[in-house]
Amino acid sequence: MINRLVVENLKHRPIRTLLSIIAISIQVTLVLALVGLSDGILSDQARRARGVGADILVRPPNGALILTGGQMLQAIIPRIVEQTPHVQVASGILAYGTDLFNYITGIDLKSFDQMSGGFHFVQGGPFQNPDDVMVDQYYAAQHHVRVGDTIPLINRSWHVSGIYQPGMLARLVVPLATLQDLTANTGKVTMVYVKADNPVNINQAIADLSERLKDFKIYSMEDYTTLFSAANIPLLTQFIAVVIGLGVLVGFLVVFLSMYTAVLERTREIGVLKALGASPALIMNILLRETIVLALAGSVLGIVLAYGTRALIAALLPGSLIQAIVYSWWWKTTAIALVGALLGAIYPGLKAARQDAIEALAYE
Amino acid sequence: MTDAPIISIRGLTKIYRVGDVDVPALRGVDLDVAGAEFVSIVGPSGSGKSTLFHILGGLAPPTSGTIRINGQDLFGMTDSQRTELRKTTVGFVFQKYNLLPTLTARDNIEIARYIAHQNGPLGSRFQEILQLLGIAGRLDHKPRALSGGEQQRVAIARAIVNNPSILLADEPTGNLDTENSNAVLGLLRDLNDRLGQTILMITHNPEAAAYGHRIVTMRDGRIAS
Q1: Which of A97, A114, A364, B82 has the fewest C-beta atoms under 10 angstroms from its C-beta?
Q2: Count of A-B CB contacts under 8 Å
Q3: Burial profile B87-109: b = 16 or more Cβ within 10 angstroms, e = fewer
Q4: CB < 8 Å to B161, chain A
């Protein structure tokens, strides 16, 4: 019975109910999109790192975990290869950020192909000249690039030599030497990928490399790729927390206003319920149930809309952003929406529960 | 009509505090109402009729005096005890019907049962009452689809669904035309005659008041006659 009253009350003011649900859904979508982007971008980076085919990664002592800061001398590569047992091949790369999400990567094609097994081209082929660039399909789709086109990057025109299947290192790949010269990093690389002669020797190779390259950061690729999570990105966790805080605030304000107007509007009905013997707890119960329905409906819509933002991002910015659907956050965002909404319902609920029945019945 | 009073009021006073001023609404009311009696209460505006109803209905506490309904002393009752009283002992009928607009007529009746924790199907006696009230075929309509007379009949059904000891009707025909007024008053009288429902009815209309067994006149917070 009480649920029927709750549903009928919500249906009675469809526009207000719909707007409340939409407002709650937007904050749910916001959180899901942000978490999904973090997860999607990081997972994509991890996938591309794995696509290199290396077993071990060497980063300079001052290099950040995932971001591309810090360089080291390219000269260490031959030393690593020659001096460390069980190292089959090593390849240095230089990553240069072009904007917040994208970077251009210089590789030594020979050693890189040796390690990775080579790029799989869908159009064109590997670069032949110093100003050649290879792009992955996502980049090509987003920027409408075809083989033979010229694209401007870091104040230089590049000739597109090939388009390859994604999942390999980077979206934009140029000859290492060209990028080094162009960015005043001659003789330097950002990281060195290392492949062991046999997977069983990876740990031994890591131990040997750590011995030889004191202070350098040496990860097994398996460990390295597990570090691609929001928790390891400086400020990202805090940023998500801020968005969650805003989400709770939005839920609070929306439901506060919605329920406050509902209580004002239903003053007389609340008086009637009280005259029938409804306790303050029952009046509160009705409003809280309405709030929970709004929050849950908003959460479901928010989850659906998160698929929409993913589709939109995939259509418009396939080369820059990837939004994952993070199922583990569905209940979290629902909880966030519920907390905000219930907080917003407390004051209107108390106001309704404390309403004087005689005054309420006289309310016009 | 039984001789033992179902309502017994002695020296009842009610003083409202308006700002810094005490406003006496009831100044010592003495009244007995026998079981199955139909009493019309008349009097000018401000004479204390509604205040008396609010206290009888457990919507407001008395300031002093004794007031007993079916042996329960309302004086000194807590808010939750008065809430309990409204569930089972008292039924209200209002001038403006006061049906919940979002619910059907049936659900308006059902919600009164729900609040009073009366679950299960409506008894055959109540089905008869619905026939008597002439609303059995209108139960699935919402209030906006019902005429004033129909709405008031639904309100009466809601008021008596939990078999209250007393039915308090506050100007039940105040918003109705003559035909519907007569119909509603006739129904109240029928409920009283057939079921022995004790009824107290406030009215300004002498013709309506005449439907009661007895007319009590209030003036200046007291029973005048």
Answers
A1: A364
A2: 66
A3: bbbbbbbbbbbbbbebbbbbbbb
A4: none
